[in-house]
Amino acid sequence: MTSSSAPSRKVLSKIACNRLQKELVEWQVNPPAGFKHKVTDNLQRWVIEVNGAPGTLYANESYQLQVDFPENYPMEAPQVVFVPPAPLHPHIYSNGHICLDILYDSWSPAMTVSSICISILSMLSSSTVKQRPADNDRYVKNCRNGRSPKETRWWFHDDKV
Amino acid sequence: MENEEGLQADGESDPKAPIPVSEVDAWENIRDDDIMQQQSAIRAEEAEKVPFIGDKEPLSVLAAEYESGSPILLKKIKVLGEKYGSIRRTRGDGNCFFRGFMFSYLEHILESQDQAEVDRVTTNVEKCRETLQALGYADFTFEDFFALFLEQLESVVQGKETSISHDELVIRSRDQSISDYIVMFFRFVTSGEIKRRSEFFEPFILGMTNATATVEQFCKSSVEPMGEESDHVHITALSDALGVPIRVVYLDRSTYDIDHVIVNHHDFIPSAGHLPSAGGGSSETTKPIVTLLYRPGHYDILYLK
């Protein structure tokens, strides 16, 4: 995925900027286990390194998450995708889009970048098979115009994996 | 788990709906999706015609709405009219209970200038803050929402540089950047109260969802996200946490006797200790501060004559 897939960038609101600065400080003091975020001067896009948890299918593997914040964060969810190559997982498409309810309909301002990361790692850790979603090719083809996963209508059938 | 193609019209579709897309006929599937998308687009469009908080309207607009409709409803509206004079609509975006409560409560303070009530609720807001901290919420996740509510509460008290008029209260309640933040403040308060008293709320939560949702899951999926509708559990929790008595008047088709229709209401009276006057307590003696009209799936604000 290239940076062209980012949502149209509007400058962060004052309240969003404040909130993100606080999240950043909290992250530096207390980063979620398994994640590394290289702090840059770009508050609106975080690129986070994810390390598969030991003892899971993704142990010793490392991936990158790209988190883009909308101007009215945290009222609106950030856009979170894996930078390809994305992990092989039944809920992760090869273009990096992630099918996880909290990133879309179930987002709440009570969540944080850190809590998103923990949910994603938990989703990876509970996987029992390394494979793409059944409709991967169809979906990825439909996203070729650079569509954001936030514009997808997601169905969350399965909360076991 | 799969995705459905097509742009998402709004957030009201149920994300937990078990639709095994791959197992149904593709044509049928596309049709269903089209229809659902159209329906939610219509709903979103309809919702946006109504501001977050509408103007105060005479109760007669309700009768006009059901003119050619159910005779039971028309009779009930007539009964309603004996006690209540006007209605103020809220947008049907899933936040109507919280939004209606917000406006009605702040309007009450603005009109009554009841400083004791302001002090009392401020104390309870501080308790809610402590509840969230004790539950492990990071301060930065909720403090902006708390600050904005306290700011609005402060501003409806007159005689200060920051005081606002009734017109300004209406304008702010229609301004998304303020209105949504206050709705979210109430969602935090409600969630905190439900989790703090999880043994009390658990049976109600188990009773209303088919799945075996835990209190934690319920708060995460049905309280904290914007646009999730409210029912008894939310209202009880908010009323208890802030110590604000709420009356909900029900306008539905249920009736025992068509010739003598009764309009039911339920008073949510905060548990003792949180009440406006310590010692006072029964539903007969506690006057509701906020009165809402419930029609299945929606809350509007109701005004006494």
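Helices of chain A lie at 14-29, 113-125, 136-142.
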